[in-house]
Amino acid sequence: MGTVTEIAENLATIQARIATACERAGRDSREVQLVAVSKFHPPNSVAAAASLGLSIFGESRVQEAKSKIPLCPARLEWHLIGHLQSNKARDAVALFTTIQSVDSLSLAQELQRQAEKQSRTLRILLEVNVAGEATKFGWTPTRLLAELTEINSLPRLEIHGLMTMAPFATPEKVRPVFRQLREFRDRCADSLGAPLPVLSMGMSSDFEIAIEEGATLIRIGSSLFGKRPQRAAVPED
Fold first, then answer.
1. Mean pLDDT score of the chain
2. Can you give the pTM of this predicted structure?
3. Under 8 Å CB-to-CB from 118, ≥6 apart: which residues?
4. CA dist., res. 166 & res. 229, Å (int)
5. Which residue numbers in the chain have pLDDT < 50?
6. pLDDT of residue 170
7. What dotted CATH number matches 4-225?
């Protein structure tokens, strides 16, 4: 857990690396937003990061977010970036402005039901298992293309783009995964006849490669906050 000064220094380094990666790719750095991954970090770390101008925070578990978000500064934007079980959909709809990890049609339908009950519109990203890893959640590209129109017909859900969790590998080895997600996003947009502007990909170890391949959201935890504290005893979602 870093102090405000440490987080500020880390953020300055990250922002410089973002700017350099954007320059290499011929992109405007304003196209890339940082999601501060605050899982297992306490509310005072969130407040410190928010005081430095960060406004988007990512949590992986509904139960942790449920206890943490009320203790954090108001007016922050909260994204769920971890796997969501359908029985947690009600709380997720109430807590988060965006759910990045929508990974099945059945989950999308449950989120639609809960959003309808709460009279909310929910922004979502569709998680694609580009690398086909058995240990990762997400649609295969073929299945998502087959179900995309049905997902898009759910009136309380707004599809803003795609998300992927890249394999743990050297940055250059994951470049093809990021490139495939961008290319697949373009196919999905063509299929829908509507833009899908958001690509959430890249974390502390590989975000520069992700930016070069088109990421608009990068999920940064340890490089920003420092080493995670010992995990609290939070029930699994």
1. 93
2. 0.93
3. 90, 93, 94
4. 24
5. 232-237
6. 74
7. 3.20.20.10
